[in-house]
Design brief:
about 260 residues; alpha+beta; Immunoglobulin-like; 2 domains; six-stranded mixed β-sheet; binds 2-acetamido-2-deoxy-beta-D-glucopyranose; membrane; Junctional adhesion molecule 2a; transmembrane helix; JAM2; Ig-like_dom
C-alpha cells in the first residue's frame, strides 16, 4: 500500500517568512504516484494539482518530492492543508496526511482610548486594542511611563484585564490624572506601545461650569441654525414682498456700503 506521513502536522511561522508543509510517502510498486495538495477553508480548493501550483499559490510555492514550501506567507495562508498521494498501481492506492498552518502576526501599535477628562469619583474605562496580532495580544498599562501593577487585593481602586486591554477605575481621584499608554505583546516580534494620552480628573464644580458653558453654546448654535432654516423657508414667500419694497432695500444697501 501507499503510506503517507508528515514530519510536522502543525506548522507555525511568522508572517512573511517561508512555511514548509512536509509530506512523505512510500509506494509499494508505483514509481510515479500522483501528488495533490488541497487547502480546506470554507470550501476545499487545489493548492497543487497536475504538476502545477494553483490560484493564489502560483509563482510563490515550490515542491520537493511531495513537500511544499510556501514563500512569504500571510494570514490568508493560514488553515488546514491536505497532501494526497494516489498510486494507482498499489493495492491500497490512496494515502493522505494533514498539515495545519498557523501564521503568527506580531503586534501593531495598539489603539488606546483614554478619556481626556473625568469627574472625581466617577467610573472610568481606558481601552487598548490591537486587532491584528496572532495569537491575540495581551496588554499592560503605563502611567507617566511607569508600569501600572496588577491590583493585588479586591479593594484596589482599579482593575486591569490583560486580555481585553481594559483598565477600569471604580472611582477616579485627582491622583489618577496623568499620561496613560499601553503596551501590546504576543510573544511574536517586538511589543508595541501606543502614544501616551493625558487624562485630567476634575472636581465636579469645574466640570459642571464648563459643561453648562458648552450646553449654552450648543443651544445657541442649534437655535441659530434653526432660525436660519426658518428664514430660508420663509424666503420664497417673502421675495415678492421684497420686490415691492425695492426702494427701502436699495437705501439700506448704499447705507451699509458707506459705513
Ligand atoms: C485529514 O482531514 C480530513 C478532514 O479535513 C479527515 O477526513 C481525514 O481523516 C484526515 N486525515 C488524516 C490522515 O488525519
Ligand atoms: C477592604 O475594604 C473593607 C471595607 O471597606 C475593609 O474592611 C477591608 O479591611 C479592606 N481590605 C483590604 C485588604 O484593604
Amino acid at each position: 500500500p501507499v503510506t503517507v506521513s508528515t514530519n510536522r502536522p502543525k506548522v507555525e511561522v511568522e508572517e512573511f517568512s517561508d512555511a514548509e508543509l512536509s509530506c512523505r510517502f512510500h509506494t509499494e510498486t508505483d514509481p510515479n504516484p500522483r501528488i495533490e495538495w488541497k487547502k480546506k477553508a470554507k470550501e476545499v480548493s487545489f493548492v497543487y494539482f497536475d504538476g502545477r501550483f494553483r490560484g493564489p499559490f502560483e509563482g510563490r510555492a515550490t515542491i520537493d518530492g511531495a513537500t511544499v514550501t510556501l514563500h512569504r506567507v500571510t494570514q490568508e495562508d493560514a488553515g488546514e492543508y491536505r497532501c494526497e498521494i494516489s498510486a494507482s498501481l498499489d493495492t491500497v492506492s490512496l494515502g493522505e496526511t494533514n498539515v495545519t498552518l498557523n501564521v503568527l502576526v506580531p503586534p501593531q501599535t495598539p489603539t488606546c482610548e483614554v478619556p481626556a477628562s473625568a469627574v472625581t469619583g466617577s467610573a472610568v474605562q481606558l481601552r487598548c486594542r490591537d486587532q491584528q496580532s496572532v495569537p491575540p495580544a495581551t496588554y499592560s498599562w503605563f502611567k507617566d511611563n511607569k508600569p501600572i501593577s496588577k491590583p493585588r487585593h479586591a479593594n484596589a481602586t482599579y482593575l486591569i484585564n490583560s486580555h481585553t486591554g481594559i483598565l477600569e477605575f471604580k472611582a477616579v481621584t485627582k491622583e489618577d490624572s496623568g499620561r496613560y499608554s499601553c503596551l501590546a505583546s504576543n510573544g511574536v516580534g517586538s511589543p508595541k506601545m501606543c502614544e501616551a494620552k493625558p487624562m485630567t480628573i476634575e472636581d465636579v464644580n469645574m466640570t459642571v461650569i464648563l459643561g453648562s458653558v458648552v450646553v449654552v453654546f450648543l443651544l445657541l448654535v442649534v437655535c441659530g441654525c434653526g432660525g436660519m432654516l426658518l428664514h430660508r423657508n420663509g424666503l420664497l414667500t417673502r421675495r415678492r414682498l421684497l420686490q415691492q419694497q425695492i426702494e427701502p432695500q436699495d437705501f439700506k444697501h448704499t447705507q451699509s456700503f458707506m459705513l
